[in-house]
Amino acid sequence: MDNIRKLSVFEKIYGIQFLRKIFILAFIAAAWQLYAVRLNNALMFPLLTDIVTGLIGVLRSGELPERAAVSLRVILIAYFLGVLAAGVLTVFAITTRLGTDFLELLTAMFNPLPAIALLPLALLWFGLGYPSIIFVIVHAVTWPVALNVHSGFLGVSATLRMVGKNYGLGGLRFVFKILIPAAAAHIVTGLKVGWAFSWRTLIAAELVFGVSSGKGGLGWFIYEKKNQLDIDLVFAGLLTVIIIGVLVEGLIFKFIEERTIVKWGMKF
Fold first, then answer.
1. Who's near 33: CB < 8 A, 6+ residues apart?
2. Which residue from 41, 64, 114, 158 puts its CA 20 to 30 A from 33's CA?
3. pTM, two decimal places
């Protein structure tokens, strides 16, 4: 026991993941600031301090929180609809042969199709506004979620399937009692991928036609500030997009993982 070497302060700090990430962020911030100072062109590459100052300003004025609330409201509706559609398709696929063929055909057709490519059709069908954005986000969410969930269902062991059958489970009861718990890791992965696709699709769509009644979300905020040559606020908007994405990934999905796949011993 006496021969065990004690860890140095640096090794203890290095062993904490959160502090390592803070160090990486600090390094990126310092590199950004130094490059911006050397470039000395605020229109092309503003100082990080100017971006933070601009971010604080639009936060205090309430402009940025209002735009973020618009985007979050739209994405929650569209994400829910996309996950619901993926769930219906996947349950149909796992319970019938026709459903399997149907899902495989649709995913082969629509999954490679970029959601942003549907914007012209969305404009024709739903007009200029958020119904069109919801439509393209639902497309972006449905297929990756359905593919991951279906893959998880197919990967459930034959033993678990036999246990469910021996207990007389069938149809939706079999799906909810056996398949969903056993495929939880794939389901959570699908939800995370679907969220990432939906978030970037929302911002891209808002950049194109995200204004409704004179107001839009974060994408439209970025587009407006670009037209006004407030480049520091453009980066402030992009930084907000990143922060929201990181918070959802690090808090909400982390909580779901800890309450399901980690708790059940599927991930360590």
1. 47, 48, 49
2. 64
3. 0.83
